[in-house]
Amino acid sequence: MKEFELINRYFKGRGITRRDVNLGIGDDCALVTVPENCQLAITTDTLVAGVHFFDDIDPRALGHRALAVNLSDLAAMGAEPTWVSVALTLPNIDVEWLEEFTEGMHEIAEYFNVQIIGGDTTQGPLTITICAKGTVPAGKALRRSGAKVGDWVYVTGPLGDAGLAIEARKQDIKIAPEHLRYVNQRFDYPTPRVAAGQVLRGLASSAIDISDGLVADLGHVLAMSQVSACIDVNKIPTSDAMRATLDKNQQLPFILNYGDDYELLFTVTDSNKNMLEMKLRQYGVDAACIGQIKSGGGEVELMLDGEKLAYDDAGFEHFTKESV
Tens digit of pLDDT for each residue in 99-156? Predict the structure, then answer.
């Protein structure tokens, strides 16, 4: 199978067709119409075999995951996902693998009403690069730079499960079969908090998605907002699988630093706190308040059982940390 045969078979004519796409796959560029009084949000992520996913990952899960992590970035900005382009580098053409991979990608694209409008295919080490686009009302995008002293810090769901799945696959942790299925699902099929991100718009003061770990990603918000934060570690939500597998101290690196959970971390003023909690619950999101913003120069103060926790692992960062 040659390049254009691959494109025609697995991408062109598959998935949804949005009315705002004037020209999709097949030309030098795609053409789309951006709604009036909206801004275009654009994000790009690259996933590399052995760095972002295991070599033996199920291809359907990989297709889902590759798109989900980009949609999570759009969610963190409060944007509505609309269009994506996909650059796929393959060592060879494996028809069965491609069928499953693209099916996983098309499934999540259709769920979030996203159209694949173009991209590129090349030969080389397995790499997936996705550029996702979304729209947000002009001036309403969520930013990392809006946190203020006194704001409350929230996360939209349990942390650490993806890290638990990774370490279980490395056989560094023993985990009960029913819990292993759960954490593997969380890692392989992350759920971008798209609806929650749009609820946060106009109510949250800042937001970010948790991809590199709670402490690291919160640190980005604090640096951009020029404030600090105090976090009560006991209030960080965890899953039944996490609590059944590890004791409190063993959980710390997973919930604080591992990342790959793709929950949203956001801040909200005291006056908007109750309203935001109520609106999120309407979408099935039981967000947890884990701390508060205070004055300072970007420090994250961690409190555990009423005492300061000395913890300096800063989370995942390329060129400094071991990959999967």
Answer: 999 999 999 999 999 999 999 999 999 999 999 999 999 999 999 999 999 999 999 9
CATH code at 77?
Answer: 3.30.1330.10
Return the sign of the alpha-carbon dihedral for residues 130, 131, 136, 139: positive
The count of structural domains within the chain is 2
Q: What are phi and psi of 94, to 5 degrees?
A: -115, 105
Single pTM value for the model: 0.92
Phi-psi group of 259: left, alpha or beta (phi > 0 → left; psi -120 to 50 → alpha; rest → beta)? left
Q: Do 209 and 303 belong together in one domain?
A: yes
27 is in an annotated binding site: no
Residue 122 CA to residue 270 CA, distance in Å, equals 51
Q: Is 45 marked as binding a ligand?
A: yes
Residue 58 among known ligand-binding residues: no
Give the separation between CA 246 and CA 248, rounded to whole angstroms. Answer: 7
Q: Is 240 assigned to a binding site?
A: no
Same domain for 165 and 131 = no
